[in-house]
Structure formats: C-alpha cells, structure tokens
Write a structure and sequence with these properties.
The structure is a single chain. 63% of the residues lie in helices and 6% in strands. It has 206 residues and is mainly α. It folds into 2 domains: 104 residues, Winged helix-like DNA-binding domain superfamily/Winged helix DNA-binding domain (Arc Repressor Mutant, subunit A); 43 residues. A 3-stranded antiparallel sheet has the order 1-3-2. A hairpin with a 7-residue loop joins strand 2 and strand 3.
C-alpha cells in the first residue's frame, strides 16, 4: 500500500451528553435556588461593607415588622416559613442590637407582639438601599420592564404552589382523621365480650 493510501487514524466520537443532564443548569428549580443563593450572598456582602451587622433573613424580619408593627411572633414565623424557635433566636439577636422590642398583647397575655425601636428606622432605609442595588445588579442589561415581569411571574408561581400545598395538607389531614376513625371502629369491634357473672351462669343452669 502506498504511503498516501494509508487511512488516517479514526478519532472516536465523543458520546453525546444526555439532554436531561446538559439541561440541569437551566432547570427551573436549580435556577431559582441559585438566584436566591446569590442574592443572599450579595446582600450579606454589601451589609458587611456598610457596617450593618445583619443577615438577609434578619433583614426580612425587620422589614416584615416595619410593614406590620404589632405583628405577633407566630405570624412572622409563618410568613418566613421557619420554626418559631428559629425566629426566637433571630429576635434575641435583633433585640441585642437594639432594633426590635417585644411587647405583651393588649388582650392575650400568651401572645408577644413585635415593634421596631427608633434605632431601627435608619437600618430599614439601609436595607432597602441594599435591596435596590442588588435588584439593579440582577437586571442589568435587560429591558426596563423585565423586573416587573419576572416578579409577576414568580408571584404567580408562588401562588400556584402554595395552593397545591394547602390542598395536599387538607387532604392529608382528612386521610389521617379517617384512619383514626377506622382504627377506633376496629378496636371497638374486636373488643372481647365481658364474662358473665357466676350468679348469672348458675341461674341459666337451673
């Protein structure tokens, strides 16, 4: 065989990456998680730069109280979707910083209401300024209406998923109640009959 007739070495073709695997980076759930993580990091970095000793979640508590002075601890925990004990720890920290105070409820002694101190007012303004700066970073180079569009879409998605959760919780509670009722009914049917007294047995033999 002449030198020019030698076939070139065959390079094995690279296996195609499965579509599912290659699309993970753009999957809806992963994108939402990554955006939330990056917003948290950007917020806390800017807060440190401004000398603001507060985390993003603590800032969310402060803003919630600012818009609902007198709100109860239970309501804030529900809004944030966290356990009450976790909120108590955050409130302890915010109280130490002189930003939040707890007061007794005027009619229910079991409830503690939350209020901002005068020292918290400038902190609220700085939190809002950080949020605005991060929003501008996030939507840089996009159309002017992109921010409102994305927020409206996310709000709709949140509403849809919240409705599904409520429906599943209601269905689960109904199923649990039905199972308890069936269990009690089964227990009452399987209960052994009480033995008759000796006097009654003797009377039957007579």
């Amino acid at each position: 065989m002449a030198p020019n007739d030698v076939a070139p070495p065959v390079t094995p073709a690279k296996p195609e990456q499965p579509a599912m695997q290659s699309g993970v980076g753009r999957a809806f759930g992963f994108l939402v998680h990554d955006v939330s993580r990056l917003i948290k990091r950007r917020f806390e970095r800017r807060a440190r730069q401004m000398g603001l000793p507060i985390t993003r979640q603590q800032a969310a508590v402060v803003l919630n109280i600012a818009g609902n002075e007198g709100v109860s601890q239970a309501e804030v925990a529900t809004w944030l979707g966290i356990e009450p004990i976790a909120l108590v720890r955050m409130l302890d920290k915010l109280h130490e910083e002189g930003l939040v105070e707890r007061r007794a409820h005027p009619t229910d002694r079991r409830v503690r209401t939350l209020w901002l101190t005068p020292a918290a007012r400038p902190v609220v303004e700085r939190i809002l300024a950080i949020n605005k700066a991060i929003r501008e970073e996030a939507f840089a180079g996009m159309a002017a209406h992109a921010c409102d569009t994305v927020i409206n879409i996310l709000d709709g998605i949140k509403g849809n998923l919240a409705l599904r959760e409520e429906a599943d919780d209601s269905r689960g509670a109904g199923t649990a109640s039905l199972m308890v009722s069936i269990s009690r009914l089964g227990s009452s049917r399987s209960r052994p009959a009480e033995p008759r007294s000796l006097n009654k047995r003797a009377g039957e033999r007579r």
